[in-house]
Amino acid sequence: MQSKLLKSSRKPALSPKYVSPNQLTICGFETPFDQLLTRANRWVKLSELIPWDKIVRQYDQQFKSPEGRPPISGRIVLGAVIIKHMLDLTDRETILQIQENMFMQYFLGYSTFTNDAPFSSTLFVTIRERLSLDLLQTISEIILEHCFPKEEEATISTLPVGDDQQEPPSPDDLACEPSESKSMEIINKGKLLMDATVAPQNITFPTDLKVLNASRIKSEEIIDLLYDAQLHGVTKVRTYRENARKDFLNTAKKKHKTTKEIYKANGSQLRYLKRNLQHIVALLVAYETHELEIPLKPRQITYLEVIRKVYTQQQTMYASNTKSIENRIVNIHQPHVRPIVRGKEGKKVEFGSKLQVTLVNGFTFIDKLSWDNFNEGGYLMDSVNKYKTRFGYYPAEVLADQIYCTRVNRRQLKLLNIKLCAKPLGRPSKTALTNHVSPGERNPIEGKFGQAKVAYGLDNIKAKLKTTSESWIAAIALVLNLVNLARLASLCLLCWITKLFSSKFGSTKLNVQFMSRP
Q1: Helices 42-49 and 466-505, interaxial angle, to 10°?
Q2: What count of other Cβ atoms lies within 10 Å of the Cβ of residue 392?
Q3: Are 394 and 498 in contact (CB under 8 A)?
Q4: Contact partners, residue 77, CB within 8 Å, separation at least 6
Q5: pTM of the model as a whole
Q6: Average pLDDT, stretch 181-201?
């Protein structure tokens, strides 16, 4: 009765209607926030840089049906996600900070201060499911295009008279014989840095023994749900769970475990798990025989499928005495996570998603996200083509690791008149150093990885599902771009002050370099 009263008295979240920041206001009738809040605050500055109308319209496209309760304002949802990842807060702490901070409420589009929460912290899971990787990437590109308008096609055509084709050449066109190729001059601009990294998930370091023990415990929970005394008899099937736990702890608690002890413990847990799976099959057959509904939720059925796959994989490795298998499951709660062999000092294997990232003037773009390991060298041209889609021209230079510098990639970049800053193939010549990448040239993208992992939590993705984890990673990339955008806006203001000082006094004592769009 008490739980019903609590549910009925629960106050729904407010749904303030979105108001465009570009809406005209009469002088003297501004909102209290516009009248009283200082414009020097970081949240006020950032809110003025973001094109809210465009990105909210992109977010609202998910809600096509006009029926039902109106959704929460897109600015509140997107602003809360930005605040969460910019300050690296938990879901609950994010809501508390918004309730206490009037500048954050202004950033979310509120006109006056309120003590009410914008929405329940548990709603963040649904929000992350809606904010897919592609949607957040699109929002990030909209913000970038708003601040740096896209240029026209940077291709000068020198075709013969009468040929009206104006499209840039493709690699196939450029690869043909000189007599057959169309004479085109491609103007390339900018510098493209690319590299790959891993976004580790927030899971315990997996071992075969831990995975088998977790699978056994989950199988026992499923047996408890399936067992029905009237259907299966008074005597419940035996799982030997206490003995299984003792056997697991006797090995897991040892500080130093030999290979023989680990092998023996794995075999013991495999036999316990096999017995439980046989019991589950027998219990399910009874439900099918009497044509009764199986008392398992979809999530528990998914767990059962994962457990069966874990048993098959572990039994195969145990029987053949090997330590690797294809599509190996390392965590039953996050079966999409795979081991990514990196070979780094101290981190030879990481468990999470692998990212192909490009960096252009401090702006971060995730060109590929995969939960399986992949050779990043095969995706260089995809990143180059996406660069042209974003900016309207190809890059003048590409800086990448040695793994990207294959013969195929070198040939394709040469056809597009793109300089690959890397060590040339073959025996080094006298001019080899002129085209060599110094360690400092690729520091920006390595520094961006460090910034994302140390300051914004890319080294510990706390989302559980595959979709929500991808949304978490994309939100961090969006925050990185907003931080860089705020930095460039400050430099732009400093440049304007320098020009004003120069025009008024005839000389300039300030030397400012503003990083413009490529």
Answers
A1: 100
A2: 15
A3: no
A4: 59, 119, 127, 131
A5: 0.83
A6: 79
